[in-house]
Design goal:
By secondary structure, the protein is α/β, with parallel strands linked by helices. Helix content is 34%, strand content 22%. The chain folds into 2 domains: 313 residues, FAD/NAD(P)-binding domain (3-Layer(bba) Sandwich); 144 residues, Flavocytochrome C3, Chain A, domain 1, CATH 3.90.700. The strands form 4 sheets. Strands 1, 2, 3, 7, 8, 9, 10, 20 and 21 form a 9-stranded mixed beta sheet that branches. Strands 11, 13, 14, 15, 16, 17 and 18 form a 7-stranded mixed beta sheet that branches. Strands 4-6-5 form a 3-stranded antiparallel beta sheet. One of its GO terms (biological process) is steroid metabolic process.
Amino acid sequence: MSPIVRQSGKTFGFHVPVVIIGAGAAGLVAALAAQEAGAEVLVLERDPVPRGSTALSAGLIPAAGTRWQTEAGIADSAAQFAADIMAKAHGEPDATLVARIAAEAGPAVEWLADTHGLPFSVISDFSYPGHSARRMHGLPSRSGEELVDALRGAAEARGIEILCDARVTQLHADENDRLLGVTLERPDGSTEEVALCQLVLACNGYGGNADLVRAHIPTLADALYFGHTGNQGDALLWGEALGAATRHLSGHQGHGSVAYPAGILITWATITEGGVQVNAEGRRFSNEMHGYSEQAAEVLRQPNRMAWTIFDTRIAGIARQFEDFRQAEAIGAIVTADTPQALAARTGLPADALISTLSDVERLKLDGATDTFGRAFRADQQLSAPFHAVRVTGALFHTQGGLVVDEHARVLRPDGTSLPNLYASGGAACGVSGSQASGYLSGNGLLTAVVLGRLAGSAAGAAVA
């Protein structure tokens, strides 16, 4: 079945000015913005309830120059944030789009707080790799589930219709690539057709499509996929069929710290605050501070595609602000011991090797030295008993490449012109991480979901209001 139906003059069952496909953070933010611009909105969600990749994340949105940073004494700016994004992504993203996204992130988070009541705060007790300031903002539980539930609640409170169990199967367009409507399928196999004036694609990337992952990210073709299974690349395939430009399709967010076999995300604070990762031989194998995205491939290269993250009680106290970490503790995924030798016994790691590794790390910390992998250690981050460990694997979280968009989130053709009435946000759009896993700066996924979602919704709503 063709993803695009070309049929001018078609009659549809009913009409909604702005249709949004996907009810994760990108789609719900777009819906709030479109309604604020004066448009009637319909959100279509393939699942029984809105969850998506947002619910699987830590729910953290990086933003610069916010009031929460000011209250915490954190100096930051949009220009500094943009520079961090570009540096992490090796200068690959479009600098103009990066500057716009960095500038709009703070206002977007404050808008969600002030207009829609989301109780954000900034994480001020640890830093993420690549960020020159502490700018991660999240809700109290530090969970993506809380974020998507809060956004859904905000949309429902404003009477925005969210139609769940509605999987879009085709887009209808005229000969000039103007979108006319969508066909959606219900769980019982029945179909409905909806006419529209503006369409926002907020249905993420292609991480759940094994064929597309194999084609564009072959190094993670066999990796654990920790994203949402509904991310089948629909937006990418629709856009390509309409002649849209694509960019950085190999770009993605990996994560080198998913508890195995529990399948729970373990916060990277376990590393940035002084923890390390060792393989089944009890040896370190990389510079863990490069970032959790590129660490996924490093972990997957180890024996049995596993590693152990080792930290201490001080770090565990920081990690407990995250709901995921508390869940991991509750089910016994976190191993605790009073000595390195006892920790080796509990994890099954070779005692001599583990003791030697941890001794080397502590010596490096005391000296404030840099190891052979290039990791610089700090004297104030020594590990002390009791020690903790969690077995982890590497995973693919979501893709970062996608449809090329402009500063209003309009989808562009290869010649730089925009398609008549199509917008993309979140994983459906090409993000700001470049073409490599190492280009992913912590929070880039929700950054483009929220900021591009707001930009897309505002532009689509204004076009029909």
